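Need tokens for this chain, all 204 residues.
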Amino acid sequence: MKLLATILSTIFHPLLMPTYGIAIALYTSYMRVFGDRLLGIIVIGVLLTTCILPSLGIFILYKTGHISDFRLHNRTERTVPYIINFVCYIACYLYLYRFGIPNWILSFIAGAIVSLIISLFINRYWKISAHMVAAGAMAVLVFLMSIYRLMLTPYIFPLQITIILLAGLIGSSRILLNRHTIGQVGAGFALGAMCCGFLFFLFI
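Here are the structure tokens for all 204 residues:
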């Protein structure tokens, strides 16, 4: 079970979730009319700015001895990596903005930026689950796309069921691996959901 939990935690790492979210927003909505080539370029740019560059920064911190664990299990060592993520997320937002991406999609990245800032302050006193912050944002994105008819009909029900199951599995994995408590998992999900939802209504 712990092996499965580790695999799930890796596949749905917080650094990968923005890419998954943007891919869902682009490929399951009317944005599909712009074609796979353009959408692929956009998704690769998101992957570069929200995953590859932050990972490189964290790896350099690890190699230079500024953090003891590449996976950031130590709460007190998360501050600088979070700041690196913040800068990269701003770059991602500007990248998408220059592509003329609709506001409702930009709100997903904006929500991630806000939740990152809040998580940074919370993390000084308490270890909130970054995995579940990302899962909460993804869940709200899927359901808001469905409610506002932004998602193409064939994708609605399968994605709603999938995101609910995934959120449960990810949260259970973090608890099973003793990375977080139930409270930290629940708080992370709530924070991600509220930030993404608030920014969606602010931007739309």
